[in-house]
């Protein structure tokens, strides 16, 4: 029997686990506050930001909604971030990606105060993660590690193949998985669009993590029986005249081979949002110097 890993349930556990920390902060007179900055009219980005704000409301985090005209000059975004950096009532800053083409995402990321960088994208936070001393683990990779743990998947000594080398998922996830922490110690292969013989790399893995942004790239023929499959993809495609959400994994064919698999929707996506709450609470605790227990 294949275990379909329920990301909604694991995310709910993370949210529940944050309640004590949020109470501790509240008792100290501090309300964790996250500013979301949206400079896009892409419906998917609008949906993600509004889901993140709902999540905040649900757990007692204050959400500040900042929306900028997608055609505004890049400087307007940089100034907005600078104002949020300087505002002591804001603990976390999230700039929803992607930003418009006329804005360099690395320039925006560098503008965010590393102490408020709850995405973990700032070079200082990336450097700390690579050095094995992360403050903010990026939300999606952190969510993937939590899902593996919840499914009872041991990473130590496992062969993990990651398909995708993005700065948001593939690269940080590879660094976390090769790290010496309890959720690391794996042997990691990172594949990408120039990788030769991808099926050979996925077939030899104990765990396959698909994060390439290519709908249904990984199917059952590319897997060995008993593989754990984590699908990070969230792709909108037209099927029978309707818009449907699919992952980077062909779920039905992969499920026939997998020991455990995440669905889309309801797998990694909810975990990305839950770990953003986690990082916001952590950022608040560090700034307020109020120690909290994190799940
Ligand atoms: N600043 C950031 N921008 C982006 C990030 C990020 O981590 N930080 N990641 C992605 C998108 N993303 C977060 O913003 C994200 C993707 C998917 C979901 C999610 O909950 N998906 C649901 C389905 C939602 C739907 O119906 O469309 C699921 O998979 O069940 C949340 C967040 C790019 N940008």
TrEMBL record:
Function: Catalyzes the oxidation of 5,10-methylenetetrahydrofolate to 5,10-methenyltetrahydrofolate and then the hydrolysis of 5,10-methenyltetrahydrofolate to 10-formyltetrahydrofolate.
Protein name: Bifunctional protein FolD
Catalytic reaction annotation: (6R)-5,10-methenyltetrahydrofolate + H2O = (6R)-10-formyltetrahydrofolate + H(+); (6R)-5,10-methylene-5,6,7,8-tetrahydrofolate + NADP(+) = (6R)-5,10-methenyltetrahydrofolate + NADPH
CDD domains per the UniProt record, alphabetical: NAD_bind_m-THF_DH_Cyclohyd
Keywords: Amino-acid biosynthesis, Histidine biosynthesis, Hydrolase, Methionine biosynthesis, Multifunctional enzyme, NADP, One-carbon metabolism, Oxidoreductase, Purine biosynthesis
GO MF, any single term: methenyltetrahydrofolate cyclohydrolase activity
Any one biological process term the GO annotation gives: methionine biosynthetic process
Organism expressing this protein natively: Haloplanus ruber
